[in-house]
């Protein structure tokens, strides 16, 4: 069963193969060092020594430039004045510290987590530190990931009242500035810029992924980003990032797996939910099948089609084999009907014990309701502990679960209005999330066609994923 850390556990496993730094206070964030002590097998994917040393360097940089430091004070001075006499002096202090701020949006938890991982990868590649807009419930969900400092953007940050209203039409938006010819390669870089990396972004916003635009953006000390996308795959297609990426991740499809396990440590409240559900329902069985059922609309008859589809996927792919003997099916869905019905279907199987368990059935998405979001995170974690996982297509909730778990899921195809699809599901090529709105035209068009780094997603053809 799950309990606190155990001294007998090899330190290396406790630190996820060197991903984590020892020395944090354990009690304030129990999940940090006990995640690997769950009954899950240790991850077969080891972080590269280069990734580990980069994380340690990142932590030093964050500690030096983070909130409360001299460098931070200097960097925030006069940031709210556009044209200041001091600008050069302020700019010189940026030489050492540059920042990228994750600005909170209204999108769901999965959307938030995939964009955080992408942005952190960008921060590692560009030697910026990443700060988080804390005005949503992020600190009710996650512990501080970086030692002796904070990833939370202080509430008295000079531009705090502005960053929430940044959008693609804003005068500070990079794509908009390109559109208005307000910047070109000879312009003196501004002190701050807003990057719009949300699914509705325009071709000019997508110029972010071009080499020469990165050369310009590099010299902007403060970047503010709103995103709900897993844009890591397109960072691999920027030539100047490639060499470092290949060294960081010799196994390309482990980017999300390693970085999510490095960044996300559920708070004690969330971890309490995970461990109590795990101990009560999953710890004693031989095998757990996770089922994530996300339906984006519910025309009549749909429930039954999805149900039939799930059953046919588990049968066809032999996901509930005769051995091992005792199995549990963990269902995550907003709709409690699924586990009720699946309990009936699965219990009809001969001589087998299959427990069907659904931790919650919230019915509707209630993002930013603290308890709702905590339950969602707990379920993402529980799914990630499964031995095998079936997920719904195009769901970032499912992407996070399989990425964290290091699992290649079986993805349920989109059900037809009138019948379950045939085949019902497909095995994923890799455990990476899909970048569902990757820029396919523009500067990366040629590379996408020829590269071996990415493939079209199984669940969404215009999307790309690392393989
Ligand atoms: P996506 O919309 O499937 O890409 O995933 P998101 O996580 O971004 O947004 C969906 C939100 O709806 C989640 O964050 C939860 O708040 C809620 N939700 C969706 N499915 C589930 C589920 O299976 N369990 C729980 N507890 N919440 C869910």
TrEMBL record:
It is a single-pass type II membrane protein. GO terms for biological process: cell wall biogenesis; cell wall organization; xyloglucan biosynthetic process. InterPro entries: XG_FTase. The keyword Transmembrane helix applies. It comes from the Eukaryota. GO terms for cellular component: Golgi cisterna membrane. Keywords: Cell wall biogenesis/degradation, Glycoprotein, Glycosyltransferase, Golgi apparatus, Membrane, Transferase, Transmembrane, Transmembrane helix. The keyword Ubl conjugation does not apply. Its main location: Golgi. This is Fucosyltransferase. It comes from Brassica carinata (Ethiopian mustard). The lineage of its organism: Eukaryota, Viridiplantae, Streptophyta, Embryophyta, Tracheophyta.
